[in-house]
Design goal:
- Two copies of one chain form a homodimer.
- The first copy, chain A, has helices at about 10-20, 35-50, 95-115, 140-145, 150-155, 165-170, 195-200, 240-255, 295-315, 335-345, 360-365, 390-410; strands at about 55-60, 65-70, 80-85, 120-125, 185-190, 205-210, 215-220, 260-265, 270, 280-290, 315-325, 330, 350-355, 370-375.
- The first copy, chain A, is α/β, with parallel strands linked by helices and about 400 residues long.
- Chain A folds into two domains: about 10-210 and about 330-410, Zn peptidases (Aminopeptidase, 3-Layer(aba) Sandwich), CATH 3.40.630; about 215-325, 2-Layer Sandwich (Alpha-Beta Plaits), CATH 3.30.70.360.
- In chain A, the strands form two sheets. In chain A, strands 1, 2, 3, 4, 5, 6, 12, 13 and 14 form a nine-stranded mixed beta sheet that branches. In chain A, strands 7, 8, 9, 10 and 11 form a five-stranded antiparallel beta sheet that branches.
- In chain A, strand 3 (about 80-85), helix 3 (about 95-115) and strand 4 form a beta-alpha-beta unit.
- In chain A, helix 1 runs antiparallel to helix 3, helix 3 crosses helix 12 and helix 10 (about 335-345) crosses helix 12 (about 390-410).
- The first copy, chain A, starts with 7 loop residues before the first helix and ends with a helix.
- In chain A, about 60% of the residues are buried.
- At the A-B interface, helix 8, strand 8, strand 9 and strand 10 of A face helix 8, strand 8, strand 9 and strand 10 of B.
Chain lengths: ~400, ~400
């Protein structure tokens, strides 16, 4: 088994080819879910899946499946690999794509090697994992596990006013399959870490044993739009100032704690957004994450209490809208052990770790034993064109996936 | 002299009529400089000036002058009244328009009363006082006093990509007069306070003795766009967080001081502005004002020092662009005394005060003895459709202007 290895040139070649698809006028990689760029990326991936001799199945939410299934194993639940190919705005080329293309690479390698699986093996590219254009993120995998009705997902209105279902029809990826039609025996997702830990510690393989809980909120502060020159500081109801206080509160709280909680305000807008007018409204998002559900909930409670005090102190009104909430996920320990074992056999160090980002694996974990494999991210950089992983690490990760899959599909 | 009073019905009628011109589809009052709505407002005001029997003169930057000048006083420098009729987005009806229409009202009243002036009296509506579409604000009066070459002003590109000179040609207000052709003997601007002081103290007349200095800066913070879930708090270079620190610094500093300094962050934007990405860039404006030049400069220095420390502490880069800078202005004490005296004679209380907002008067003060008269603003609200002054206060202010002008034009 250890002699078998993936075709590094093919995998890396595809990764770079896919990374050129969806460049905008400024050269930025932008493949938002349901866009023309997404279609272009999907078309290429589907062509590669077909060329590998796999069956292609597309479900109503646009999830793409490439399935290697011989007649005699048609009834066995498949081992599922995968991730997503949609991107953020001005993305790197690895996030998601590495998992999808490695999954395909592993299946092609096994198929070509004469490996006889005891069950089907499939690779998935889930729709709208990033959630940039349509909320929530991880939508395709969430629909797959029944966590969101497909009708509701398809009627989602995007940040640009488009409707996801109409966009999927338009680009030819509104499939016929019922979401969830494929019930996996196990799910493994290979991904770049998107954080600095593996690189800093010089460890090539992360055996991801759990995933942080995520809490997304949109907060709106309403104050009074008065003249910047004539309103004494003491008489202001400044929505922008209140929003700034929330940001510094979150940072000060995180820094005073030893917990791994992370808190981010990524979106911010002021109204009327004029230089000489005190902001009457500030709208911003809060992204809270923690691997422990109790602690995550405590952070949400602390924020809510702070907002209440702030509203009273600043004489503003504050409203909170919950955008997404996922509890922390514990992955399947036996698959995590298989990852560690595979690394050991290839002479690679590995480290048990927590995923800080959300991934499709957290959704699939609801219906099947699941785990993830991480490889190092240069400087921890992600969601950025400088996202980078060395070719050696990329190939090593794909080979660990190969080993784990060949073990699981033999059962 | 005290028996003479303005025609309240005519003044208030015109104020409300002008306030209906330039309403957008949502009913918002929007007469940005050089726009179709501005043209509609100008056309009505010019028609009223002509109907009053005044000469109309329009200069190259579009400033409108209505001049009452008889043959025998043609060479005397006129007493100039005025303000502006352009507005912010979603404006109230008083800001600027009250000064222009009261100026016209005063001249009509004097003319009809048989008053024999020793010098001409003129009313001005200066172009682009608000500076919303074209920067800087107070542009027409700045050009009038020679503070900005007219060629430079006319080539200003607006926030919507238009060029002011082309827009003035288009709406028919690129006049032939050389800016500054009219050298006033004195200038008096009647305006709503746009702040809460007069209303709170129950005083109908503000004798404005000086005007705050204004410092406008645009600050750009550059950090790193990393993943919100995977980047430990201690490793972040969060541009949004640094921007928030600036806002709280300004507020804390203002609150710890007894000085009348006001500091406002009115504009803010984050990039990439995504919920799960640490902001790589935050761009915002800082509006600092103080009636004392030394203190204003000290505030600018304190902000610059804070930005330097912040850049080091947060490992971000910060760049600062100066958008506008006006030193505080001291108005002519003899005109301020005339305002106080006129109020006393009409049995009204008055208060010497500082203008917190910028006004055309601060420009004209460079070339002629100038002052302003304020009337109360309901709740201090301005730049807002809820801007309001009672009819009684509006009429009282115009009568004080009448008294001051009849005194000055008799000299």
């Amino acid at each position: 088994m250890t002699a078998r290895s993936i075709n590094a040139e093919r995998l890396l070649g595809r990764l770079h080819a896919l990374g050129q698809i969806g460049r905008d006028g400024d050269g930025r990689l932008v493949r938002l879910a349901g866009s023309d760029a997404d279609k272009a990326g999907r078309d290429v991936v589907v062509a590669w899946i077909r060329a590998a001799g796999l069956d292609v199945a597309i479900d109503r939410i646009g999830n793409i499946f490439g399935i290697w299934r011989t007649a005699d194993i048609a009834d066995e639940a498949p081992v599922l690999l995968g991730s997503h190919i949609d991107t953020v705005i001005n993305a790197g080329i690895y996030d998601g794509c590495y998992g999808v293309l490695s999954g395909l690479e592993v299946i092609e390698t096994l198929k070509a090697s004469g490996y006889a699986p005891a069950r089907a093996i499939a690779v998935a590219a889930f729709t709208n994992e990033e959630g940039v254009r349509y909320a929530p993120d991880m939508m395709g995998s969430l629909v797959h596990v029944g966590g969101l009705p497909v009708e509701e997902a398809l009627t989602t209105v995007g940040t640009d006013g488009t409707v996801l279902g109409i966009e999927l029809e338009r680009i030819g990826y509104a499939g016929a399959k019922k979401p969830g039609f494929l019930k996996p025996h196990a799910y493994i997702e290979l991904h770049i870490e998107q954080g600095p830990v593996l690189e800093r510690e010089g460890i090539p393989i992360g055996a991801v044993e759990n995933l942080q809980g995520i809490s997304w909120q949109r907060i709106t502060v309403d104050g009074d739009a008065n003249h910047a020159g004539t309103t004494p500081m003491s008489m202001r109801r400044d929505a922008g100032h209140a929003a700034a206080r929330v940001i510094t509160f979150l940072r000060d709280r995180a820094q005073a704690s030893n917990a791994p909680t992370v808190a981010t305000v990524g979106c911010m807008s002021f109204e009327p957004n004029a230089i000489n007018v005190i902001p009457s409204r500030a709208t911003f998002t809060v992204d809270l994450r923690d691997p422990d559900e109790g602690r995550l909930r405590a952070e949400e409670v602390a924020l809510a209490a702070y907002l209440k005090d702030l509203a009273a102190a600043e004489e503003v009104t504050i409203s909170v809208e919950r955008l997404a909430r996922f509890e922390p996920v514990t992955f399947d320990s036996s698959i995590v052990e298989l990852v560690e074992e595979a690394a050991r056999r290839r002479g690679l160090t590995s480290k048990r770790m927590t995923s800080g980002a959300g991934h499709d694996a957290q959704m699939i974990a609801r219906i099947a034993p699941s785990a993830m494999i991480f490889v190092p991210s240069f400087g921890g950089i992600s969601h950025n064109p400088r996202e980078h992983t060395t070719d050696i690490d990329l190939v090593a990760g794909a080979n660990i996936l190969l080993d784990v899959v060949s073990h699981l599909a033999a059962q």
